[in-house]
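Protocol step 4 of 5: obtain the predicted structure for the target chain.
Materials: sequence only (see below). No template structures provided, no constraints applied. The aim of this step is simply to have a reference model before the mutagenesis design in step 5. Sequence pasted as it appears in the construct record:
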Amino acid sequence: MFSKKLGFALGAVMIFLAAVAFILGRPPHRDARLYPLIRQYTPFVIEKHLGGLAIRRKDDPHFQEEPDAVNFYPRLQELERNWAAKHLKLQGNILMILDDQGKALKRLPLQNEQERRFIREYYQVKPQ
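Step 4 output (structure tokens):
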């Protein structure tokens, strides 16, 4: 009933779709030095569940989001950007991490232009 060509074509389409989903589901580039330091202060935690990954807040036990695999990292980045708008401040080569009242918790000196670009692009924090 099915020819060999149709079977190969369906297999190729499935492989192509799997590759596209893999590429779209990758997390964006994160600076290896800065991201773990900033991550300590963000209220978001990634949890593994049977159905995939979930985003929870440390300070709100009722907050839980379970976006699909393709949208997981963009949604996490959006939540982190919203948090960064209030809690990160870039002054020259110094990144300040602020608490909820606006007091400085940590000052991180940025070492090069790549780190400054990461803060501007990933967190969308504008220098002041």
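Step 4 remarks: The longest strand covers residues 44-49. The CA atoms of residues 117 and 124 lie 9 Å apart.
Proceed to step 5.
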